[in-house]
Amino acid sequence: MDEKNRHEPGPALPTQQEVAHLKGLVGFAAAIVGLVLAVVVVPRYLPVTAALEPVGFYHVGNNASDWAALPIQYSDRDACGTCHQDKSTVLSSARHAGLNCQTCHGAGTAHLEQGAKPVVDISRAACAVCHDKVTGRPEGFPQISIASHSGQAPCVTCHNPHDPRPPSGIKTSSIPKFPHQAGGWDDCLACHRPGSIRPVSAAHAERSNQSCLQCHVSTGV
Amino acid sequence: MNTDISRREFIKFAGIGLLGAPVLMRGLSGVIENALGPWQAVQPQRSPALPNWQFIVDIKKCIGCGQCVKACKVENDVPPEPQYNRTWIERYSIDSLEEARVESYVPNINFNGSQHLSNTHNGNITKSFFVPKLCNQCQRPPCVQVCPVGATYSTAEGIVLVNRKACVGCRYCIQACPYGARFLDPRLRVADKCTWCYHRIVRGLLPACVEVCPTGARVFGDLNDPESPLHKIIAAETLGVLKPDVGTEPKVYYIGLERGVR
């Protein structure tokens, strides 16, 4: 660079050298733009015809037919009623109407095709899945506190699972409570057999010692 | 062989080659399209004859029973461990400061039995509800875009699937999904995700989760089918999608979507 030019005061016409330098810069910028056009834009957009666009992102191959061929585990919801008409009739007018049998009884294809036994879970936990009182469940959905609701008997003792409704004739509050000291009682019928002191009701004739405490909740007095 | 070539000549030939190659490619593209026919079959233009499957989730109806989660595992052979799910349920609890607390549902572990939320989380819980989650089958799926080996793709009907033979298990797609809908199958070491029960819906059946939902919180249908239950819902309800701002154009629509659900 020329020492004399740089220190000259006031505006001055650019020297020939500076003009050449500027021209060089402009030329360089043009070359860069041209290069981008040539290397990126033209090869990207010129050879890719509209017919190739739907291909989208690169992928090795569509194996949708493999996925489509997978076996079915849950049957169509109408399949069960073909054989189990009695149950589906009861269900159709009950509060559980619209429920798929397989929601409670598990996947049905194995039962349909190989005769495998479906799930018949009569535990309280089975009903609790939907009907236990849980924070977050919408208001108005029937919920009870499963831990404290009338003893520990399976819900199906009083409620028909296909046509669930409050059991007629029984108020859970009217079931006599277990009045004895808790523990050690394994033979209720030793005292309460028919014809003895405070006998079990005739409706309980078929029941055994094992089931008493399921409804007659231990109060631990 | 004479390799003497001036700089001027080199630049000239290189330039011609650089500009000429794409022109040649364009000429050859017809040949390429014929030769690589399967490429076109991969993602043909949407035809109106194809089903336009959509999914609607009604948050107001979900009771968080988790039967959908269980059914999905059975139907799709999802790993039994509770952390692997193609569909799952989240419980949102909104407190008085409008902060959301999210818990994820694990069948038979969470929420079953009398589990109640404590009221000590940043003030009182004012609202609590369940949000079922599943793959949104995005119309612009980021998981498909990022797959480095091209193992994941959208089918002609717009269902995003994984080609397990091609997947190398790199987990890019798992990170790319803004909805956390993907996981790595620990047995196969490949990415796995909800397919909306592709094998069922192509046969005209409903996805397993929709079949077993006891309250009808999940609705599935084909918008091209005038009999589809979707139409009535779309006419009557306000629908929202998760994270609309990320531009994925999801196909799972929610009824009763609260602010703060994402």
Give structural notes.
- The complex is a heterodimer of chains A (221) and B (262).
- Chain A has 221 residues and is mostly helical.
- Helix content of chain A is 33%, strand content 0%.
- A 4-stranded mixed beta sheet of chain B has the order 9-1-11-10, with no helix packed on it.
- Chain B is elongated.
- The relative contact order of chain B is 0.19.
- Residues 38-45 of chain B have low confidence and may be disordered.
- Chains A and B meet through helix 2, helix 3 and helix 7 of A and helix 1, helix 2, helix 3, strand 2 and strand 4 of B.
Write the layout of secondary structure elements.
The complex is a heterodimer of chains A (221) and B (262).
Chain A: H1 3-6, H2 16-45, H3 64-68, H4 85-92, H5 101-105, H6 109-114, H7 124-131, H8 189-192, H9 212-215
Chain B: H1 7-35, H2 37-42, E1 53-58, H3 67-76, E2 88-95, E3 100-104, E4 125-133, H4 142-146, E5 152-154, E6 160-162, H5 172-176, E7 182-185, E8 190-193, H6 198-201, H7 208-212, E9 218-222, H8 230-236, E10 239-240, E11 252-255
Parallel strand pairs in B: 1-11
Antiparallel strand pairs in B: 1-9, 2-3, 2-4, 5-6, 7-8, 10-11
